[in-house]
Structures are given as C-alpha cells and as structure tokens.
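Batch manifest, entry 17 of 40.
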Amino acid sequence: MTLQAALGPQAQAAIIGTCTITVVNAGTMTTNGALNVLASNQAGGNAAVVTVEPDSLVCSILNLLDCYGLSAPPPAAFLSAPAGGGDSVTYASSYAVDGGAPVSGAVVTRLVNGTYTVAVDLTASRAAGTFPAGSYQAQVLVRCE
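Output type: structure tokens
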C-alpha cells in the first residue's frame, strides 16, 4: 500500500503539501509604435501579478530547498482576438519572483515554503504586418508543481 493510498485527500495535502496561487492583478498588454508587438512590459502596459504560497510539511521537516517548481510558460494562442489577429504570432513570457530578475516563462524556479509575489509579462509578436484593431485576450498559466 502506498502512502498516497493510505491517506485521505486532506492528510495527503498536509504531508505532501499544497501550493496556492492567487491573482492580484490580471495585467495589460499594449502595442508598440509599429503595431506588430503587444506586450505587458511596454509603456502603458503592466505585468500580471500573483502570489504563490507553497506549503509542505515534508519540506519543512527535511529542510528541503527545492520542493516546488514555479513556471509561467507562454500560451500557444490568444484566448480571443479579432479576425486574423492571431495569425503568424509568436508568444514569449517571463516572470520575476519578489522583484528579482526576470526569467523565461518556461524556466522552472525552485521554491521553498513561503509567500512569493510573482510578476508575469507576456509579449505577442507578429511575424509580418500589424495587429488588426480590436480586443485581444491572452492567458499565461502560472504553475507551481
């Protein structure tokens, strides 16, 4: 019998751990002067902000330094865009933990128990032409595993 099978969900969470992610600010992307880049780190834009709270008794007892892996990989497409708005677009994300240097969204940062503030930026770049006028929505999934 495995430990997981022997314990109910609440006991598993207490021993194995949990990681709570709370959205503080959804973020805003703005366009550049050439209308071929939408990004949250440009003038007028702002990063999405989340708090991340990993908590694990096992990590505390064993004094482990890398219990959780945080990442924020870029999306494959816009959630919504005007006709043609998502054509020939590449996406790049980055995040910064507690005001530190930004890292590529696909890079995993190891975390110990605690509370962290994470700023997440997204850039959408069009290979040719400009973004059509309209409303765009994109979503970056912040992962704590």
